[in-house]
Amino acid sequence: MITGAHAILYSADAEADRAFLKDLLGTRTVDAGGGWLIIGLPPAEVAVHPTDGEPEHELYLICDDVEATAADLRARGVGVDPVTDQGWGLLTAIHLPGGGRLGMYEPRHPVAAGS
């Protein structure tokens, strides 16, 4: 029986991104050994989209109010892209200390997480 999912982000500064995500998410963390921090995620869901190109994978955080969450993050000094209306939801990206971006959106579609 599958009991969860494990997402991996690759980073130019993994230590900084781990500390950032630990603070951002405020969820349980565990040390998998040698300081290798694993951060708990909020309830999650997975979707499979068709592609004509090479298969790829993406990770997005979901929030109830993307404008308010983005404003809170900006007030804390976090870089956040402008919010755009995609029809299916309001989308932005959080700038990670290691140089990457992590998508965040407010869905307008039904969500399976927490059901």
Automatic annotation (TrEMBL):
Limits of the VOC domain: 3-107
Listed name of the protein: VOC domain-containing protein
Organism: Actinomycetospora succinea
